[in-house]
Structures are given as C-alpha cells and as structure tokens.
Amino acid sequence: MNNINIIVPELPESVNNAIIIQWYKKPGEIVNIDDILLELETDKIVLEIPSTVNGILKKILVKKGERVQSQQIIGILKINKDLDNNKIENKDLDNNKIENKDLDNNKIENKDLDNNKIENKDLDNNKIENKDLDNNKIENKDLDNNKIENKDLDNNKIENKDLDNNKIENKDFQIFSFNKLNNYSPSIRRKIKKNNYELNNSINFQNILKKKKNSFKIKKMSPLRKYLANKLMDSKKNTVMLTTFNEVNMKKIINIKNDYKDFIFKKYNLKLGFTSFNIKAVTKALKFFKKINAFIDKDNIIYNNKYHINIAIATKRGLITPIIYNTDQLSIINIEKKIKELVQKSNNNQLSLKDLQSGTFTITNGGVFGSLMSTPIINPPQSAILGMHTIKERPIVINHKICIMPMMYLALSYDHRLIDGKDAIGFLMLVKNFLEDPICLFL
C-alpha cells in the first residue's frame, strides 16, 4: 500500500486561509472514492474535500478548528488496491475465525480472579489505625481557646495611609464613591436602590459587571463574518462612494411573469423572478457605460470585456455573492436557471471557489426582505453595485392622469473616483427604460 497526502486545495489570492470545521473520517477508517473527508471554511464559503482514492485514513495532521493554508498537507491516506477492487482479502476474515486459545476456551486464568480474593491485611481487618482519628481530637491550642489574637483586628483598625485619606490608587479598576443620594440623577438613584448599594462605601465597577454577566453573550466571529466586516470596511475606506436613485414602473414585467408563469414552470420547472430581468437589463446597460463595468488598479483603469454579475444571497452563514458568468450570452430563462442553481448550492454549502471569482458588477435585492430603499455598499474591487427593492403600489402621473402602479426604487452606489454622476445617472436611466419596456430585453 502507498501513501497519498490530503492537501488543501488551491485558494485564490483573496482568501488568506481556511479553518477545518469537521473531519468526517477517523484514523483507521476505510475511505471510498468521493467520500467526504472533511469540511473547510474559508472567508467566503464552506469547501467539502472528497477522497480521490479508495483506501484507509492513516493520519490526521491538522485537527478540527485549526487554520490551514493553500496547498498545506493536512492528512495522509493509505491507498489500498484491494479496496480499489472492492475486495478485502484477509484469511482471518474469510474464515471468520479468530484463533485464540484463551478465547476458544472462554477462560481467563488468573489465580487472583479465580479465587475472587484480594488479600490485603489492612482491608481484611477493616481497620484504619490512626491515633489522632481514633481519639477524634484535634489538638490546637489556638482553636481550643477559640481565640484569634490580632491587635489590629481587636482594635477594629486598619492602618493604611491611603485608606485613611480615602484614596485607592489602582489603574486596573475604577472605583466610584457615593456619598449622598441626592447628588445623582433619578435613573442612577433607582439603580442604587435596586442593587442595595451602600452610599458610604465604594463600589467596584467589576462587581457591577459581574452582576450583569447573564445579560449578554460573547461569540467569536465566523471567518465569513470577519471577511465581510473587513471587506465592507475596505470598501468604505478605499472608495469615494456615492448613491443615486430612480424608480421603475414594474407593471409590464409583472404582466409577463403572470402570463407565462405556468408555461415556464411546466417547460423549465422554474419560477420566474425579478432578478433575472434586472440582470439582463444591467448587462445591456453596461455595454453602453463601460466605466461602470471597470475598476481602478493603482493608477490604471481596468476595463472588463466580460459581464460577470454577482448576486447577493443571504444564507445561514451570512451574505455571499456568487457569480453568473457571461450574462450577455444568456437568455432570461438561462439566467433564472443559474440563479436557482446558485441559491441551492449556497444554502447547501456546495459553492466552489470558481463560483466566487472574477465578478465585474453586483446586484443585491433587499426587496425580498421588504426593503423600500437603501444605499448598497460597493463590492471591491468593483466600482458599482445596484440595489433592487420591494415593489409597492404608489400613485404616479401617466399622460396627465394619476394612476396606481407597482413601483420599485433602484439605487446605484458607485465609486466617484472613476464614475461621474452623469454616467451613473445615465446608466440607471437606461436600466429603468429596459425594465419599463422589457421587449428590449429579448431583442
């Protein structure tokens, strides 16, 4: 049998490390091809590491909860040809015999056990000879006399210059002294009475915290939450972010959804959503506004010739933004298929690193949670993000008449270092026009 190393897969540059969150096999256990050996949690996703061979897990080198780097060896597998052939040849197992005289005779010969005797003089006599215990006496002159001789305690005096001066010098603790109840606000007075603080004594702030120990819970951030926190902070620090708004009449798209929902469900097993229309509209608009699909790299502007759209998906682990690639080459139906696939993979922790790399623009839909309006944060290194929101019936004026229409706010956040207001507004107006006249999306 040969050994093979279990190696952390190649992680992209944006992922610094990963944490082992679970080993599914123990050393000595049989492993088949495609069996999941362990799970890794990166800054972005959970990765399942399958076995590439049949064999036996020989050794685990990195334990659960420890951090690992790209291409690091984390375990060793023994390759077993017999397992490759789905055979385990073992004479003892084939014969179903275990030859052992002691086991065959069902005997365990042990004089001490056979006699069921434990010879111990001290135990046989059940005696513990201890003069002090037998006499049940503890001779201690000080205790017998029940006296504690201490001049300072007898005199109830504590001699300390700092205490005499009512001073406590300690950098680690803050001591608050209360002298008169009337000196404090009503809320403080209520707390003093509630906790039965003595106003003539000092109160240690740590003791107050101890009384509140059950009022909060401390939990360590997950790698995904830390990644999101750092990335969002980087976005705020490294971009000059501005948001512009517009509103869209979604009546025609709602009509298309209602008219064709049964046909689409029967033919494709899909429920047509709004995001697929937005992705198609954004992709078409990006072709007219190249800077919004670009990003800044030091002193350079990098223009993307591809249209790879990130979609924000909320999972139990947190927010992730997998990518639909080459959206300019996909129909609305195929975009909807990709959305369904990515949502399922996201919820089942089955996303690969390839699903998260090289996005050029992001769309987030807070409307599914009821958001009326927001200012979405740019997803670095991208230069813009579009926020969709909930659709509400509102009065608008059409041809000098007041009508009730299903309206949705759009919010475009963009990096003002690269994108001027004119381009941002023009892009958003074009997206609005495509959505209000959706026949353009099919041309």
Structure explained in plain terms:
The protein has helices at residues 81-84, 91-94, 101-104, 111-114, 121-124, 131-134, 141-144, 151-154, 161-164, 186-194, 205-211, 223-238, 251-268, 275-286, 332-347, 421-436, and strands spanning 2-7, 18-23, 30-31, 36-42, 46-50, 55-60, 67-68, 73-79, 175-177, 202-204, 241-249, 294-297, 300-303, 309-311, 313-314, 319-320, 323-324, 361-365, 384-388, 391-398, 401-415. The chain is globular. The relative contact order is 0.10. It folds into three domains: 2-88, OB fold (Dihydrolipoamide Acetyltransferase, E2P); 151-215, no CATH class; 223-442, Chloramphenicol acetyltransferase-like domain (Chloramphenicol Acetyltransferase, 2-Layer Sandwich). The protein has 16 helices and 21 strands. Helix 14 packs across helix 15 (332-347) and helix 14 crosses helix 16. The protein is α+β, with helices and mostly antiparallel strands and 443 residues long. The strands form six sheets. Strands 11, 14, 17, 18, 19, 20 and 21 form a seven-stranded mixed beta sheet that branches. The protein has a four-stranded antiparallel beta sheet with strand order 1-8-6-3. Mean pLDDT is 78; it is low at 86-179.
